[in-house]
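Lab manual, section 2.4: Encoding a predicted structure.

Procedure: take the sequence of the chain (80 residues), apply the prediction step described in section 2.3, and record the output as structure tokens. A sample record is shown.
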Amino acid sequence: MSKGAKKKKYIKYHNDGTPWAKGTTVGGVPQGYWEWFRKDGSRMRSGYFTDGQQSGKWTTYDRKGKVVKVTAFGATKGRK
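Recorded output:
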């Protein structure tokens, strides 16, 4: 990540206009907490990026919000 790059909120939409992904980018690269959503609005997946790479624990949810799977990427120290 380049020094001085600005942090920006990012949102991408499904074709029907409902949110598909929300997160933050720094210099156009995913950084920090991100979430993905189904067309019905339910959260599908969430996790963290470090310099554009998945890091920490990523969680996959069913349509009712129940945790289906947790996957660890890289160092998970300090993540809940």
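Check your result against the sample. Residues 7-33+48-60+70-75 form one domain.
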